[in-house]
Known about the structure:
Layout: H1 6-25, H2 32-39, H3 43-49, H4 53-77, H5 82-93, H6 96-99, H7 104-114, H8 118-144, H9 153-174, H10 177-195
Amino acid sequence: MGRKSKADVRKKEILENFYIILNEEGFENASIAKIAKIMDVNPSLLIHYFKTKEEMVIAFVEYLLGRYEVAFKEQMLGAQSPQERFNNVLDIMFGEDWLNFSDQTVFYACYYLSTRNIRIKELFKTMYIKFREVLIPHAQSWMDAGIIKQTNPENVADFLIIMNEGLTYYDKLMGDIDGFRRRAKFLKEAVIKSLVA
């Protein structure tokens, strides 16, 4: 694997600081000037890397979604047997670490933008397609091992993603960790009852 260029390193640094501004002030109040201020650089440096705020937003969404993809795959790859992978998937998708992996406010703000920007919508769609592509062969392996009922592995992947997204969306509105734990435990048990052979 080659070294990252100075431009790649600088862009990542800019996007990380953009995340801080988004988390504190939201998209509506984020600006290149505010990012430059917390980085203690001239705004023209940011404009050198990202010509417009929209270009930076699109790069940020790619960065954020890429972090989710890498984190999920890394946690999945640690499991050896189909049963361990099944347990890992449920632990990840219905666990506090996944909920707290990234600020949900920023994630859903980006999701909102996908309703207004076709490029961002395509990035989200690609993320979910990749997520499904990771889950589908595992779902097939769970069926082959007799862990879950014989069904369409694509349906299993969709079901898991929908349950996870519903939980995280609802939890962001409710905002209480004890309630999240109760809901996550219930949904995890419901998923097991629905899928296990």
